[in-house]
């Protein structure tokens, strides 16, 4: 594919060196998608345990009423500790892919650098489990995390919710649910290139019919898997697509970042602006020349280091470190 003329030169050079294959997600059938999921899970299961002192533990915790238990993956500093800050994390994957293990390195880094506890939720995926199953799993995991604060050594006044891409959208939705259901209290939301709007009507959602990662067709595929024929209609809940929320007041302080060259750019800009207008303290970063999830796919670039440092600094402030 031809790269966008605004693509960051260092990132462009790395992409050309790496010669990554083009993955046309939107051409997949749902059966092929399930096969890809199984391959990802098998690969992650077969991978060696991360070489770290961080304690990693998987647990099954109560799911939504009447639904199966939910797996959470817990990351903790070694040794005994109390009153630690906590990050409740939701992985990405377009609502259709992903497991917590894909973020092991990032979560281990947060624990090592911040001394926090991380709880990462393995929510059910669409289309097998359409809305509201994914967000209800995420909310159930958050409720369990708050109830287990004593056991986990968590300071509930420093509980943040975060996620990337689809996980960022689910994080925003989970925070909305926590506000509207009267808890748990969330101190901060970290929304990394979040997937927020099923309507696909912004300029950037039309602009990127081709992209290094997650173009318009892929986005429509993901939203259709989650919502079926309700995509773009009036019958979509803000807990599915947080951009639909008309009232953003009373939410915790937020951090949002996004790349210049991705479909989510304008919906994320709008959400950040509306948060500020609703009285929510918000930090926003737009990374020039960057595509979706660029710092994970092309690690080690100057722009990627800046993005990762900004997220870390935001969590340090939120955790009062």
Automatic annotation (TrEMBL):
GO molecular function, one term: hydrolase activity
Annotated Alpha/beta hydrolase fold-3 domain residues: 88-294
Keyword Hydrolase: yes
Keywords, alphabetical: Hydrolase
Taxonomy, superkingdom: Bacteria
Signal peptide: none
InterPro entries: AB_hydrolase_3 (IPR013094), AB_hydrolase_fold (IPR029058), GDXG_lipolytic_enzyme (IPR050300)
Pfam families: Abhydrolase_3
Protein name (record): Acetyl esterase/lipase
Organism this protein belongs to: Nonomuraea jiangxiensis
């Amino acid at each position: 594919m031809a790269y966008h003329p605004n693509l960051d030169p260092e990132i462009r050079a790395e992409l050309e060196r790496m010669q990554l294959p083009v993955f046309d997600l939107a051409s997949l059938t749902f059966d092929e998608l399930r096969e890809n999921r199984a391959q990802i899970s098998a690969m992650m299961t077969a991978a060696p345990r991360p070489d770290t002192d961080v304690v990693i533990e998987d647990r099954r915790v109560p799911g939504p009423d009447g639904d199966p238990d939910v797996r959470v993956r817990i990351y903790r500093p070694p040794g005994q500790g109390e009153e630690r800050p906590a990050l409740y994390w939701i992985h990405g994957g377009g609502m259709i892919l992903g497991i917590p293990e894909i973020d092991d390195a990032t979560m281990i880094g947060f624990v090592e650098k911040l001394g926090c506890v991380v709880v990462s939720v393995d929510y059910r995926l669409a289309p097998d489990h359409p809305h509201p199953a994914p967000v209800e799993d995420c909310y159930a995991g958050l409720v369990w995390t708050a109830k287990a604060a004593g056991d986990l050594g968590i300071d509930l006044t420093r509980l943040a919710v975060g996620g990337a891409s689809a996980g960022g959208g689910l994080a925003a939705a989970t925070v909305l649910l926590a506000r509207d259901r009267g808890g748990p209290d969330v101190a901060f939301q970290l929304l990394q290139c979040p997937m927020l709007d099923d309507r696909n009507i912004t300029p950037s959602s039309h602009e990127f019919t081709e992209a290094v990662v997650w173009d318009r067709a892929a986005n429509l595929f993901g939203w259709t898997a989650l919502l079926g024929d309700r995509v773009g209609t009036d019958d979509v809940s803000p807990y599915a697509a947080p951009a639909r929320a008309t009232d953003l007041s009373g939410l915790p302080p937020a951090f949002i970042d996004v790349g210049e060259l991705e479909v989510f750019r304008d919906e994320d800009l709008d959400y950040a602006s509306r948060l500020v207008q609703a009285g929510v303290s918000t930090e926003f970063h737009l990374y020039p020349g960057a595509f979706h999830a660029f710092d994970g796919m092309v690690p080690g670039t100057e722009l990627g280091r800046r993005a990762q440092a900004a997220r870390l600094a935001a969590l340090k402030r939120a955790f009062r470190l």
